[in-house]
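Subject — a protein and its fold
Encoding — discrete vocabulary of local shapes:
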Amino acid sequence: MTHRLFVAIRPPASVRALLLDEMHGVEHVRWQDDDQLHLTLRYAGEVDRHQAEDLAVALGSISFDSFEIALRGTGTFESRGSVHTLWAGVERNEPLTRLQARIERVCQSVGLPPETRKFTPHVTLARLNKASGPVASFLARTGDEQFGQWQVGSYRLCESHLRPEGSLYREITRYPLVRTG
């Protein structure tokens, strides 16, 4: 049996509420629900039980200080000229970049292939398809919106179960970050 895993940060309820309040105005998209809102640090993909256990243990070896993060603005990911994802952006954040790099090294240490995509921190808001409506008015309304900031106190290893109505995510393990100062 394989497990579809990813490592993520979960925004607090107050930030998720601000995101959910703005998630409207584009027809025929699959908006994420509250349980799906997260910032992916590393997608591990399909792994067997042994590798999943190794990854869970190895992630626990990371020691990292708690840090602040802020979500601001929205944007899109496109493929072949078609928008497939609406997202909320993360303000430039050096500690986040360093944490992601450490997680990447840990993933490779347990045999996962290196991530080939550039790390673009974001929270996915909606998935689009060919039937989806235009996104310009949504982007104009939310493009510079401040969605809040928070002190990141942990990251998580999660499992994704694919369903027609959208993925179901289950937290496997939470890894606390150290509070300093």
Observations:
- The CA atoms of residues 67 and 122 lie 16 Å apart.
- The longest helix spans residues 94-109.
- The chain has a mean pLDDT of 94.
